[in-house]
Structure formats: structure tokens, C-alpha cells
Amino acid sequence: MSFTVAELVGDSAEQYVQLTAQAEALTAGESDRIANAANVSALLFHALTDVNWVGFYLFDGRELVVGPFQGKPACIRIPLGTGVCGTAAATRQTQVVPDVHAFAGHIACDADTRSEIVVPLVRAGELIGVLDLDSPLPNRFGDADRVGLEAIAEVFLESLGDRPT
């Protein structure tokens, strides 16, 4: 299978519609969460501008454990409620952080990161993990990113089908 990341056009909302369609095409017919997390993180890393890390942390029943990602090596384990990822997992609410240095308890895996967005992955009421994006720019992520990334996270969750996680 050959896949080309299509150039995005239009405003942010239109670009996320295009990215969501590309994520659907990448995950179609595949239910393995590691394979789909790897492809979705690669898609986002190469399609979005001004990001320095894109990936998944998967919940192992106790804490978040780094999964497929693109970027520099990452923190391996994150307790629920700790840092931006742990907060998103514990609250099950997307966290948009304009300045990570102002976020109490931020975990600095990459000193270049200035802003972050983390989308919790919840399926049938169960925490699966989080989708995490970092940027070296402050205020990189806004509401269009939140809406778009939540839609892409839903594509990832739907790709799991009825398979146990």
C-alpha cells in the first residue's frame, strides 16, 4: 500500500476535514490499535505545521504508557492526573495549553515544547489513552484544532471495532 499525505487547503476547519478523511482511509479495514496509532501519528506529524511531537499514550490499567509517535524520544510513563496528558486522561476532557510553562505540573519531555493539546481516547466509557500534540510555538493550538483532533481521535477509536483494547 502506498499512501501520500495530501496537501491541505483552506482554513483550519477545512484542513481538519481533509485530515479526518485521510485518517479514515489509513485506518479502513484495520483494527490493530498500534498499527492505526502509528499511521495516524505519522499523518498528523507530516501534515500539520509547527508541531514537534505527535503521538499516543495508551492506558495500561494503571497509567499512560508511550505508544506510537513521531518526534524526539518521549517520557515513557505518565500517572493519571499528572501533566497535560495525565490531566486529559483523568478528566476525560481535551486540554488545550497555550503555554506549557504556565501549566502546573507540566512534564517537560522536550524542552522545545511551548504549547500542547491532548485529546482523551474513551471508548464505551473506558479510557484507552490520549492523543498528544506538542508545538515549539506558544498558542499554536486553538478551537479548530480541538474540534479537528477530536474528530480524528474518534476515527481512531472507531477503527478498533468491537475488538477488546
Quick overview:
Residues 32-161 form the GAF domain. The chain is α+β, with helices and mostly antiparallel strands and 165 residues long.
Fill in the keyword field for this structure:
alpha+beta, single chain, 6-stranded antiparallel sheet
Describe this structure in words.
- This protein is 35% helix and 25% strand.
- The chain has 165 residues and is of the alpha+beta class.
- Strands 3-2-1-6-5-4 form a 6-stranded antiparallel β-sheet, sandwiched between helices.
- The longest helix is centred in the last third of the chain and has 17 residues.
- The chain is globular.
- This is GAF domain-containing protein.
- Belongs to the free Met sulfoxide reductase family.
- InterPro entries: FRMsr_CS, GAF, GAF-like_dom_sf, Phosphatase_reg/MetRdx.
**In percent terms, what proportion of residues is strand?**
15-25%
Query: What profile does the largest beta sheet have?
Result: 6 strands, antiparallel
User: What sort of overall outline do the alpha carbons produce when their principal axes are compared?
Assistant: globular
Order of helices and strands: HHEEEHEEEH
Class by alpha and beta content: alpha+beta
* Rg computed from alpha carbons, rounded to a whole number of angstroms: 15 Å
- Summarize model confidence as the mean pLDDT: 93
How many helical elements? 4
**Unreliable residue stretches:** none
What's the β-strand tally?
6
Helix content: 25-40%
